[in-house]
Design a protein that fits this description.
It is a single chain. This protein has about 240 residues and is an alpha/beta fold. The protein has a seven-stranded mixed sheet with strand order 3-2-1-4-7-5-8. A two-stranded parallel ribbon has the order 6-9. α1 links the parallel β1 and β2.
Amino acid sequence: MAPKDKYTVILPTYNERRNLPIITWLLNRTFTTHNLDYEIIIVDDASPDGTQAIAQQLQTLYTPSHIILRPRPGKQGLGTAYVHGLKSASGNFIIIMDADFSHHPKFLPQMIDIQQRTNCDIVTGTRYAGDGGVYGWDLKRKLVSRGANLVADTVLAPGVSDLTGSFRLYKKGVLERVMAVTESKGYTFQMELMTRAVGMGFRVEECPISFVDRVYGESKLGGEEIVEYLKGVLSLWLKV
């Protein structure tokens, strides 16, 4: 009998003390309802709002077998947070997502079903295909996101409708191989992961999702991140 699949969720956090308990509850409910084995790895970059203290309480509530804490001494970039969390992952599938409700766990059963039916290497949530969508953003933010995906799709042509999305399910071995050659550390990390994965011949399927703006806290996307993104697209075009 084949071993039961286990799903590791890597949650990078920074100032998410109000969001973290709810997203953890939703994840636990989703996995237990569908009888799925899971663990949540919380990678907190020394949040000044007390996120780590909340994470410790959640570990006591849900047990250390389900909640694993891997804090870091300060902000070191989104990409390195996933690399840091992956080192402690015991699941054979890795889920990367945001902790601020932008990515609702209710879509995970659909993503898992797609993977099981197709045996694909990656399932990526998409806001821009099927019945996917974006809610809670003003027109400017929507145009920035659409523009970013259009630029990347035109320059890199990866064949994925939502290249900047960050709600994904990976086979662990695939993510390890792609991460090993990925150079980006910040907001271009997700884009490079997907571009390199496609270039390496891994099979990608898409799952339409509803993306909702964060409930608590402020977006960490600013002018510097937009400039970094454009530089990242050009760099990838030159290298991949």
